[in-house]
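Record 1 of the preview.
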Amino acid sequence: MNFWQNFKRDFLVKFWAPIPAVIALGILSAYYFGITGTYWAVTGEFTRWGGHILEAFGVDLSTWGYYKIMNMDGNIFTRIDGVMIIGMFAGCIAAAFWGNNVKLRMPVSSTRVYQALIGGIIAGFGARLGMGCNLASFFTGIPQFSFHAWMFTLAMILGVYLGAKFSLLPFFQSKIKLKKVSCSKELHTDKKRVNNLFKLGSIVFIAVLLWAVYLIFVQGSTKLGMAMLFGSAFGLAIAKAQICFTSAFRDIFTTGRSQMAKAIVIGMAVATIGVFSYITMGQPAKIMWAGPNAIIGGILFGFGIVLAGGCECGWMYRAVEGQVHFWIVGIGNVIGSTLLAFVWDDLSLQLATSWPKINLLESFGNYGGLFLNYGLLVLLFILVLVLEKRYLNKSINR
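->
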């Protein structure tokens, strides 16, 4: 077997190990911050999509405070976040096609449809109330040294716990009966279909690379081109390693598995030093309000992603794999984000904007803030281990 066949099998067709992939995401997110000046985030752009839909129906958003904060200038093709998300979808599509992991799958019941939509709405609303989702207020927010991200994260874990307990109620259990079979069924692989899908994935990936080159060298927009490249790398990594922030913490409470949660903490530790380097060189950190909005938003977000069955990253790669359930989750995210924008002016003063933006580097000095952030990451890692051990002990004693 030649080099290309080995490379194709090991890196394009097979799934990737989660820990190296999450560490790679931590490194990529730090470089993304340094090059583009913003962090890897998605729900802010989803909120803008909702705003553009409202404008298409004649709604005047000029007085909506949230859209003033979010900056509605341009469109998905001219904003860094918009272009990055296009790249993410392209990376997810390439990964799904390369791995022959594409099949139209409908929700198994109407209950699952309601879960997807309502959970998606709750998660979208909570994410934007907390000024970020599992990315901007967690995976990429904590390395920004924003105290609000720590508040959101702990609240999110509580929300995930509540969501896990709620989703285990009999009402949500599948009514499908398992059938006993007498022998295994032979699986047949359509080699022509596999090859065609692989070619389609390659075309998508090459196209997004050419698009990035066009943006950089023809349009002269280096940041947009780099956003496209980083977005495709983000999408490829989360899809090939099947990274889902929902399952990372939900599984601790439902099965005791903590591999993904531990990998995510390690990824944030890696990203922290990279982001710290850029900040000390003059790149301003992204800091949000450390108010009740972070706590309430975190709880709602954690609860919503478990109810829906997927977070803002997880639903993207599952949707392109053909799982219709996650198309509905994505629609719910946009609706929930837009609902938050609608009520923001009534909530913002009490819950967010009157509260301070706490930068750990400014509050404790550069190295004090750095060591504090790493200390908190160590405590988060220990919390994951404690929750894992607690579940296993309970399982043994049953």
